[in-house]
## 1
Amino acid sequence: MRTRQGSRTRGDTPRRDHHDWASETYVDEWVRRQQAEDPSRAARFQLICDLFPFPNDATVTILDVGAGYGPASTFILDRYPHATCVAQDGSAPMLDRARHLVTKYGARLQLHRSDLFGAKWLPAHLGPFDAAVSSSCLHNLRDFTRIRQIYREIRKRLKPGGVFLNADLINAPTVGLRQRYDGVTAARRHREGAAAEELAALVRHGRRSPASPAREPFPATLDQHLAALKASGFKDVDCFWKELRRAVFGGYA
Ligand SMILES: C[S@@+](CC[C@H](N)C(=O)[O-])C[C@H]1O[C@@H](n2cnc3c(N)ncnc32)[C@H](O)[C@@H]1O
């Protein structure tokens, strides 16, 4: 397996950052760490459900973009007994970790493997969708031009009145806020007892980008995302929740 950025392995999604979604070992470790945070993500997933424009007993189809091991899809399926989720992701090891869920949910969970950089990442036979969600995925593309195209593509595949909700990482809007956010994050880590050595080791092993004081790490600010959603034809675009560089934002078709 090659490890340079942009390299492609066994037909997997090419790497564009420090994540190696094509690696079984990397994905195993990542999922284990992420699952520990799932309880704290539940409030954001619940907010996403509360913003859906249909009741809990509706028969609906929902797209989960970059679904990974399926935390957002399963949260939704547990609360919408007549919903079907299409869990899209480019990583074979990730989708393997979602596969056991098909036994639980049957045809209500459909796994779809495709690269978000591919022109046919969302084939015509999937959808149209009553809602589309995405959690911690699109920032990984590191390419705001592509993210804007994906917003347009999702918009076209939503039913009238449908919604797209994106829980993702965003850049601080100003240099002053960048420094404040970095300070808050460092203070939290300190309080939580995360040893500096542990973080340094992650950076050394290429698992985390070192913080750069000169550049923000993600593709766009919240304002840029909201503008892109409006330009893609979404209405009632807003940020529904935000804390530092994390936000839930989206709009209605
Ligand atoms: C941080 S994980 C988030 C997974 C899940 N949505 C969650 O909230 O835990 C990012 C996901 O995006 C997927 N991903 C990253 N780049 C991709 C691409 N170009 N095409 C398809 N999926 C991609 C990865 O495989 C990974 O499963």
## 2
Amino acid sequence: MPKRYRDIVGDGGSNVAAQVAEHTARLRTRMAGVTHTVAVMSGKGGVGKSTITANLAAFFAMQGWRVGVVDADINGPSLGKMFGVRSQRPRVEAAGVVPAMGPQGILVISMDLFLPDDTAPVVWQGLQADTFFWRGTMEMHTLREFLSDVQWGELDLLLLDLPPGADRVATIKDLLPDLRGTVVVTIPSAVSQLVVSKSITMARDLLQTPIIGLVENMTAYICPTCEEAHPLFGPVSTEALPLDIPVLGRIPFDPRMATASDRGVPFLFDHGASPAGQALQHLGANVQTFLASVAQEE
Ligand SMILES: Nc1ncnc2c1ncn2[C@@H]1O[C@H](COP(=O)(O)OP(=O)(O)OP(=O)(O)O)[C@@H](O)[C@H]1O
Ligand SMILES: [Mg+2]
């Protein structure tokens, strides 16, 4: 006869509690070598989280920082491509998984490094009725492995590219109590900002995760002939939002951003002097100032 919930004493003999404790200890040891952990999120998809993550990583690598990136979007992974490391299969050693190495030594771990080919989707075994629940659970599990089983070594900064959806923040906070904070990405559209303002409230008030600030992405289109900036989405701005969080940067639209991602080299490495490149550097400098202030408080 199958056991019912109340028949199970403790964890039913599967030793789950000990396994979780062991995993948590491993995670702590691994993260002890990482100075700063920063998450990039948005309540909304397609606003440029991964692009911003890749270019923040590039900014800090250019400052000589040792940088790692975790593609926490395990259903739609993209950082492997953006760092040109999709052909690198992660090696599993006794000490843990060796991450892929992108331009300027940036370490990358992403689900797409584990997929056999470009068209293979991530399919979770046993995904049926309670899809949402299971997906969240599997994501959390995979993220924990990415953080604890990968040989990150000593890093100055580990960036997490979170999948769209504010609910993920709870997961991250559970896994990384020392998370320095979150960079929130939005685009200048009212719909995006409505969703984003909900995520901000969630992250800050419910989960007590520090918000480093907001990035307004794709704010303007730079005319290739006259080099003037024109609004891309109309006159909606984060200035209209009742949010008392700093705007870390406003990044204009630059078609070369997508080309750079496709080539596997973050935009900033080759176009630092362009308006978008300068805006990204300004963003990076603001994040760096925030991290320096946190480090000073310790
Ligand atoms: N400032 C920009 N200028 C031009 N293209 C951009 C800019 N920011 C992002 N993009 C492009 O917009 C698309 C979406 O960006 P990205 O994949 O980074 O978004 P995302 O928020 O990570 O999406 P998802 O929710 O699917 O993970 C990509 O093709 C990217 O190259
Ligand atoms: Mg993404």
